[in-house]
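Dear all,

This email documents one entry for the complex benchmark we are building for the journal club exercise. For each entry we list the sequence lines for every component of the assembly. Then comes the predicted three-dimensional structure of the complex as a token string, followed by one or two observations. Please use this as the template for your own entries, and keep the labels exactly as they appear.
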Amino acid sequence: MLAPDLAIIGGGPAGISLALALASTKLNILLLESGGPNFDPQNQKMYAGSQSGLSYIALDAGRLRFLGGSTNHWGGWCRPLDEIDFEKRDWVAHSGWPFPRKALDAYYPRAQALVEAGPWLYDKAGGSVTTLGPLLPLGDGGVYTSWFQFSKTRDSELPTYFGHRYEGELKRAPKVTPLLGANVTGIRLSANGQQVDRLDVATLTGKRFTVKPRLTVLAAGGMENARLLLVSNDVMKNGVGNQNDLVGRFFADNPIPRDVATLVSFAGPLAPYYGTNLKLANGPILQAAFAPTQAFGRAKQVAGSLTTVEQPVDLDDTGKAAVITTALALGVDASKASAYSLGCGMELSPDPERRLTLTDEKDALGLPRLKLNMRMAEKDFTLYHQTLRELGRQLLASGTGVLKINRREDWSKSMDWGNHHLGTTRMHDDPKQGVVNADGQVHGVNNLYVAGSSVFPTYGASNPTLNLIALTLRLADHLKKAVA
Amino acid sequence: MTFFKAQNPQGAPSRRTLIAGAAAASAAVVAGLYRFTDVFVKHYAPTPYDDVLVALADRQQAAKLGALVSDAPAPQALATKLRGAIKPGLAAAARADTASGRLTEVGGWVVPESVALLSALAAKV
């Protein structure tokens, strides 16, 4: 039996960031990672599950079960959530975090360093790129040019795979013990249900052992966090933290329709930072996107979205007619006009019926597999249409271009997903509305915390990795105080 | 991709257009097929709405777009509405539409309402 001060379940970006953040404290930390240092098909099969409802990526395809977790296949896209993403929005049911964005501000710089995305520029990046070509003038309105930055490892190889990048640091940290191949199969509570008593752990080679930690942080990913709570149902019959039937509900991802619109720039080709990752001389890698302003979001009640330039396209005769007629009407020269398809990363509204549940099918260690019921509200797409329309309006108003919004049914044909698993152990001060409180502690269980994007109660359109790391670093500070 | 060079509909054609037009006209004259002006200037059959349609610099292109306007009123009603709307000029009307959010999606293209209506009229005559 192992008895660390802190057991971290999961060696993905949250688990690794937490271990590194606490490595210099007096805590003895055991990092339990189910996989090894590299991909293993047998281990990956543990993630297999079933689905109902809307077609979605296979449950063992959108995440990776080895050290570094899903950063082993991420694209490195980084962007902080916006203030509005944290707000309770009356027009979005179940929205709102228990704290504002500024509660994470102190942690973003360290999160940015961990993902190795260079200097913090984001929405100040516009001033750094003018030598590479002008910003597309949008004038005043509800849409503005926002910025992604990209994770990069040394030698500019995209992006930072947390396992490969930080395995050495974890092993060198005297107070941190990374244990690979260690699958937690149960979170066992004390008889009164208020404490984690022990963790059951098993390997695929047949070994089983027990861990008795003082504190436990569940950081196994947006799907597996819910699964481990649900399968641990010996004391709390509905699963740990599931006294209000919330665990596994509110699953979300960012849908990425790839061809939502065609943007025509009257003045010719867009600057290269639209549509490609562009590395600046001083290091950061950037790409521009079109985002709704927060004022527009509040006024028009639209959700978060980040619209990106995908690729140059040719126009058909009708498209050329639209461009010629519009430009002539506006008195604008469009002789060098260039057209591009637009894609988007969208925010879904929270939905309790979009959920993970357990099935009777078991994995190699006897744990019930997950089933995902996937669905999306058409309203989410209708709201995004408003944002696109506003972008079209601003292009006309500034005389810089014209926009074609593609048919909604065509968006679905080119639909992709961010593989951002969000919301299944949502954060809320009220136990009836959230699985964890504002500190990430599971309601009713004193020494159990959850880290990662599963605690996001509302999601935004930004990619979650940078944000979940900032949130995890905040949890690390809380744990430091808790054990002091 | 290159579409066209915008010009003032009331103004003189550009030098490039003149050269190209002269060359094409010469070829046509030699062939004995066209009058010079048939090549040099687009001609449309007279309509009761020419006072409105004159605002379009390229009626043929507008008609292609206008064919996609759904539920467009009859030409007479369109013309009546447009006579008021584009009185200050099409560019001013289009900018006013844009500023106040009067936009129409024509085959998905987000265009000022006045442009959509004028294009619809061009398609109907």
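Observations: Residues 378-397 of chain A form the longest helix (20 residues). Chain A has twelve helices and 21 strands.
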